[in-house]
Amino acid sequence: MTTLAPIALFVYNRPSHTRQTVESLQNNGLAKDSSLTIYSDAPKSAEHAEAVNKVREYIRQIDGFKSVTIIEWEMNYGLARSIIEGVTRLCGEYGRVIVLEDDLVTSPYFLQFMNDALNMYEHEDQVMQISGFTYPIGHIEDETFFLRLPLCWGWATWNRAWVHFRKDNDVMLKFDKKMRRAFSFNNTYHFWWQLELNKKGKLNTWFVYWYAALFLRGGLALYPGKSLVKNIGMDGSGMHGDPTNNYDVVPASSAVQLAPITCRESEVAVKLHEDFFRKDFQPPPLMPIRVVNKLRREFGKLLRAISVGGARGK
C-alpha cells in the first residue's frame, strides 16, 4: 500500500468546530491509516485562554488515526506563522502534506481524493497543489479541473512545490501590469491589493504569497468538480466576524472520479470564477472578515484622498 500523506490540522479556540472537523475526518475510510499532527496555537489574549484550553482537552483524546501527534505552541504564533512552520516541517520530513484548519467539514471521500491526486501528479512539476474545496461557481461538467489559483480550505502539496514558497515582499518586483491583472483574475478580485497591504504592514497573511509562488512559476492547482470540503466557520464565530452563506457548499456524497487530465488551466473554470468574483465585495474564503474590513477601510481612505485631491484641483 502506498504511504499516505500526513495530515496537518491547525486549531485555536473553537472546540465545537474542531470536534466537527475531526469527526468528519474520522469518517474518511483512510483515516485509520493516516497520521495526524495537530498544531494548537496559544491564546492571543486572556479572554481566549479558556476556549483554547477546551480545544486542547479535546484534541488530547482524539483517536481513530494511525497516530496522533500534538504540537502545543507556548506562545501565540497566529495562523500564518503556524501554518508556514507546520507545513514546512511535515513537507520536509514526509515530502507531502494534507492541510486542514479547525472549521472544515470534509466529505468521507476527501482523503481518498487528496492521496490519489498527490500520487497521480507527484512528478508533474507544474501541478503544485491539490484543492479539496471548490467555490460554488455553478455547474462544471469536469470531474476535475486545473486553475492558477490555489485555495486554502482543505489542500495538499509536495515538498518540491512548497520549497518555492516565500513570505517575501520582493516577489512583487517580478510582476508587471499585465501580470498583476491576470493575478487578480482580470481585475475581478483584489489579490494584488493583498500583497500591497502586506507590504505596508496592514495585513499579515500567508496565502497570497503561496498563490504568487504558483502564479510566477506557471503552477496549477487541481480541483474536484464537486467540493469535498465545507467551511463551517463563516457563522460569526471565532476570528471570522460577521456571518455569510455566500460560500456554502454540500460536501460530495460520492467519490470524485480521478483520471489524468492535461496540465492546462480550464478556460471554463476561469470564466466561472471571474463571474463569481464580480458579484460583490463579500468576504472571500481566503480571508477572515477582519481582513476584509481592513481592506474596506483602506479603500475608503483611498476614495477620500481622491475626492479631496479632485476638489483641490478645481
Structural overview:
The chain is of the alpha/beta class. The chain has one domain (7-313): Spore Coat Polysaccharide Biosynthesis Protein SpsA, Chain A (Alpha-Beta Complex), CATH 3.90.550.10. It contains ten helices and ten strands. It has helices at 15-26, 49-59, 78-94, 110-120, 159-162, 177-183, 191-199, 207-216, 267-278, 289-313; strands at residues 7-11, 35-40, 67-72, 96-101, 104-106, 127-131, 144-147, 155-158, 220-224, 229-231. The strands form two sheets. An eight-stranded mixed beta sheet has the order 3-2-1-4-8-6-9-7, with helices on both faces. The protein has a two-stranded antiparallel ribbon with strand order 5-10. Helix 1 links the parallel strand 1 and strand 2 (35-40). Helix 1 (15-26) runs parallel beside helix 2 (49-59). It is globular, with a radius of gyration of 20 Å. The model is unreliable at 281-286 and 306-314 (pLDDT under 50).
Overview in brief:
Helices cover 38% and strands 15% of the residues. The chain is an alpha/beta fold and 314 residues long.
Task: List descriptors.
alpha/beta; 314 residues; single chain; Spore Coat Polysaccharide Biosynthesis Protein SpsA, Chain A; two-stranded antiparallel sheet; 38% helix
Total number of distinct structural domains? 1
Using only C-alpha atoms, the radius of gyration works out to: 20 Å
The CATH superfamily turns out to be Spore Coat Polysaccharide Biosynthesis Protein SpsA, Chain A
CATH architecture: Alpha-Beta Complex
Q: Please provide the ordered H/E string of secondary-structure elements.
A: EHEHEHEEHEEEHHHHEEHH
Overall average residue pLDDT? 89
- Strand content bin: 5-15%
Note the gap between the termini: 74 Å
CATH topology: Spore Coat Polysaccharide Biosynthesis Protein SpsA, Chain A
Can you list the strand order of the major beta sheet? 3-2-1-4-8-6-9-7
